[in-house]
Design goal:
Elements: E1 5-6, E2 9-10, H1 13-32, H2 34-43, E3 50-54, H3 61-77, E4 81-85, H4 92-99, E5 107-111, H5 114-121, E6 133-148, H6 157-166, E7 172-175, H7 181-193, E8 198-201, H8 205-213, E9 219-223, H9 224-233, E10 237-241, E11 267-275, H10 280-294, H11 297-305, E12 309-310, H12 315-336
């Protein structure tokens, strides 16, 4: 039993009713506050299946990576993690759906560098990559290769740059499609190396490789796994990798940065995000499970076979990467005059 007193006088029945009402209002305010709701919501999370939106078609690299991680974390979460493919407009349709979803942890998004360069190419996007998402974790990264036809008289990045400067615009550089990751990597290289080349856009990466092998184009950027057989057979020559550090798959191949174009660093990465305002406790739970998955022996082995490296960083580290890449790609696009066709 609690005895209430005001100014030394015993409480009357009316005072008790008023005081009790104030307690109820205060309790309701605490329960309905965002911080309290977030903590309570995270306690039983997840209570149902989680949807991961992939802005690419089934069977592609982004889709397969997302499925790998969805399968890996579903057991520990105790719920299904379902992939929802929403391809179109360079992944931006899928990104838009994630941004507009409820911030409750039940709709997530698998994202790639297109999240950070699409705003420069599509200024009418209905979302902002730095404002409308809660980064969960960067999961994997992999470099491109800078490749040349063996008949081209260059065996290094330094020789390629010298040839391009001696013959401005004469070298044909194939790119997967206008506004693609390889197009951005190529434009960034030309700008950083201060050279002028002729970009030849294709409808798909495979045709670029075919034309390079046949000598129709001189140089191009592409992934390790798809081109490594051609490098080993001598049909293509690899000049460098695009990442800041050397690739574990090709440790003898220098990076573009160490080969003379200082500071050049481009990787194809894969990460997961949630809608902005998703409770921090939910984001942290998902981060913990994804990091555990990416560092498992099974996933690490699978990634190595694809020429990828596991990352598994914190939400803040992923946020910093996104924040840094948006202005960089905006500058590259502006200098190159690139347009999406």
């Amino acid at each position: 039993m609690i005895l209430l007193r005001w100014s030394g006088r015993p409480a009357t029945a009316g005072m008790v009713r008023r005081y009790s009402g104030c307690l109820l209002v205060a309790a309701a305010s605490i329960i309905l506050s965002p911080r309290f709701s977030a903590a309570q919501g995270a306690t039983g999370y997840p209570a149902k299946a989680i949807r991961v939106i992939v802005g690419a078609a089934p069977g592609g690299g982004t889709d397969l990576r997302a499925r790998k991680f969805a399968y890996a974390i579903s057991k520990n979460l105790g719920q299904q993690v379902v992939i929802d493919n929403r391809p179109g407009a360079g992944n931006t349709i899928g990104y838009g759906l994630v941004a507009q979803s409820a911030p409750d942890g039940y709709t997530l998004g698998a994202v790639t560098p297109s999240l950070t360069f699409s705003p420069a190419l599509r200024p009418d996007l209905p979302y902002d990559p730095t404002r409308d998402f809660a980064p969960i974790s960067l999961l994997t990264k992999a470099p491109f290769l800078l490749l040349a036809h063996p008949a081209l008289p260059v065996k290094s990045v330094k020789e390629l740059v010298a040839l391009a400067r001696a013959r401005p615009g004469a070298l044909d550089m194939g790119v997967g499609s206008s506004g693609s990751s390889t197009h951005l990597a190529a434009a960034y290289f030309a700008s950083a190396a201060d050279i002028r080349v002729t970009f030849i856009p294709y409808k798909g990466a495979s045709q670029v490789s075919i034309d390079a092998i046949s000598g129709q184009i001189h140089v191009f950027f592409s992934g390790i796994v798809s081109e490594l057989p051609h490098v080993k057979s001598g049909r293509l020559r690899v000049l460098a990798v695009t990442s800041a550090g050397r690739s574990s798959v090709l440790p003898s191949v220098p990076t573009i940065s160490e080969a003379g174009v200082r500071g050049y660093d481009v990787t194809v990465w894969h990460g997961w995000v949630a809608p902005a305002r998703t409770p921090a406790a939910v984001v942290n739970r998902l981060n913990a499970e994804l990091v555990k998955a990416v560092r498992s022996a099974e996933v690490a082995t699978s990634l190595a076979e694809q020429g990828e490296e596991p990352v598994g960083g914190t939400p803040e580290q992923f946020r910093q990467l996104i924040a840094a890449e948006v202005p960089r790609w905006s500058s590259v696009v502006k200098r190159s005059g690139m347009r999406v066709e």
